[in-house]
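Problem: given the chain below (400 residues), write out its structure.
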Amino acid sequence: MSLLAQPLKLPNGVVLKNRIGKAPLTEGLADEMNRATARHVSLYRRWAEGGAAVVVTGNVQVDRRYLERPGNVAIDDNGGMEALRAYAKAGTANGTELWMQISHPGRQTPRRVCDHPVAPSAVPLALPASAFAPPRAMTAEEVADVPRRFAHTAAVALEAGFTGVQIHAAHGYLLSQFLTPLVNKREDRWGGDLAARAGLLLDVVRTVRATTAPGFCISVKLNSSDFQQGGFSNEECLQVVKWLGEASVDLIEISGGNYEKPAMMGSGAKESTVRREAYFLEYAQLIKQAAPVPIMLTGGFRSKAAMEAALGEGACDVIGLGRPMCVDTDLPHRLLAGETNSAEAYEDQIVPAKAGLGWFCLQLIAHGDGRDPDRTLSGDDAIKGYVANEEKTAAALVGR
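Solution.
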């Protein structure tokens, strides 16, 4: 049996049927009230039937006032439980673990959905103000309410039939913002040394654990580093990983970067890193030594040989696949069956490269609509189509 095909028992006793995970990918398929739709059912049924052991959803927001994009699902007293149940039923087909990624974007809330984002401190993004408004610092009461919101969302996920959650503490979203001294300049109990900056994340994990059932999986997505001078470092990541293990998480997904430094998209990767495929492999090897729980590594994997090597070297326990599965939803099955030895990510044909985000998002919309992906979509058409979709979706939002 290949390493990819081996099952993995998690700390809570749940067994993953193999070592392939569908990494979280923003979908933009929610309705005007940020509720799940039939499009989620169509897309997640394809992923579940595609053979991955665990499928992690795109980020579901815990506060409808603050979205990563207008088509996010949010769980914030906006109804939609029956749609969530249908979504969960489709995504757990074929013995698949379906984990809802739960998140708060903090200052990375775009202007098209919010002119007044929040953050640990009033530190604006080093990006065009036309895209992201300067944030205000959260009050102590607002910070204290964050664990309750995450726990409420997790409880709804459990009730709907999802088998776990992934708490998003990477990529520069709110919990990641609390971890970095570049954004967290608070002088209360949430700011200062690493123990204080990590306090909110650990409170969220403990509150979610206390609110859900023992067999319900709790994962955390964490940056190996922010890759910014003075930001959340790899040394700090190693300590947070140890604390997360003590807080009884079942798996940690390792990634890196944020909107200002998008390392998670391969930006700035060294040539040696590109050859080895996994963007964060060297960091994962260090983290794995410190981690008391299984590690999922996402970013850059393209060949079965590299996936097997990462598992064989003990750098990680689960291989996360993202962009390749935007098009080929059955990729895990074909890798495991020996029908292919590589994952096609289509980056070479996307010109200009900045069109990549829109190109992949439009493929997910096609799956949601029950259509085949458009592998011939041009970069220019992807940019136009993506922007038009975001503007149309934002304009349709109601009750916010």
